[in-house]
């Protein structure tokens, strides 16, 4: 495959982000890059109605246009659709997903690019974030910050959540905010006829995400590794409307509805190769039931709010998977077919850059 030139394409997908985009772009304008490494910003206006694109154009001009800014529009609500639109215009070997409320540290691109160039086995790379607040931080926020992609990224060890180690993270996944993705990952997925099982969040209407997890699993299917580095730091700005208890609860439970789709990737990666999709799905259902039973047996009076919400989360996962068993089985089969197409893909069959 002919390689794209070294550099990074920053992918900014935004819905009604006019009030946020100026600070986000200002942080991008202050980025340091190794030597004369080129970069660009691809901003996709995802069905905004507040003049986001005009605000971005004005701000970037005021910042001196430190790199090319490409403004695109995707009328279909959903971050996944916006990302797919952006990917059709990528010019460089690496991409970085930047949400409109992400403020990257000045060395973010430099650190990320140096790691990607030094470790070609990395397909996906992410870091940590700290929260800033439009209004006062809620008392409950620290317990739920991971739902908001804030703090060090976590893994579950012995029933507890612990910070991810530096380097390869094995079977764990990363959130999409500030995520680097090697462009070859996108190219291989496109060549294999990849169709996402998720749409991504759709404004305030649908908070079900998981497309970032899906991308990590897809990279693993290709044989790439997923890495974490606490050296990659950004600020994640929390607007007031997302810090109500009602929004928090919707965000927390939304991931229950992406689990069955993501389990299709876990099955393709680590499921019993001798079992059919239906058999492995039944085993996954059994695991959910067992985990739920263990949580229900925990003493209710001592359970924290998070623990109680985790029980309901498990119930929603179980209901969604069991109620839609046939559809979920089709997800399992779809990802198994994707795995085989990726394995059969030779470098010469990959699309050539324009």
Describe the SSE topology.
Layout lengths: L7 E7 L6 H9 L9 E7 L6 H11 L6 E5 L5 H9 L6 E6 L2 E3 L3 H11 L3 E12 L7 H4 L9 E4 L2 E4 L3 E2 L11 E3 H9 L19 H12 L2 E14 L6 H10 L4 H12 L6 H20 L8 H19 L1 H20 L10
Parallel strand pairs: 1-2, 1-4, 2-3, 6-11
Antiparallel strand pairs: 4-10, 5-11, 6-10, 7-8, 9-11
Task: Please describe the structure with a list of short key phrases separated by commas or semicolons.
41% helix, disordered C terminus, Spore Coat Polysaccharide Biosynthesis Protein SpsA, Chain A, 354 residues, alpha/beta, two-stranded antiparallel ribbon
Describe the structure.
This protein is α/β, with parallel strands linked by helices and 354 residues long. It has 2 domains: 8-244, Spore Coat Polysaccharide Biosynthesis Protein SpsA, Chain A; 264-342, no CATH class. The chain is 41% helix and 19% strand. It has 12 helices and 11 strands. The strands form 2 sheets. Strands 1, 2, 3, 4, 5, 6, 9, 10 and 11 form a 9-stranded mixed beta sheet that branches. A two-stranded antiparallel ribbon has the order 7-8. Helix 1 packs parallel to helix 2 (52-62), helix 7 runs parallel beside helix 9 and helix 10 runs antiparallel to helix 11 (305-323).
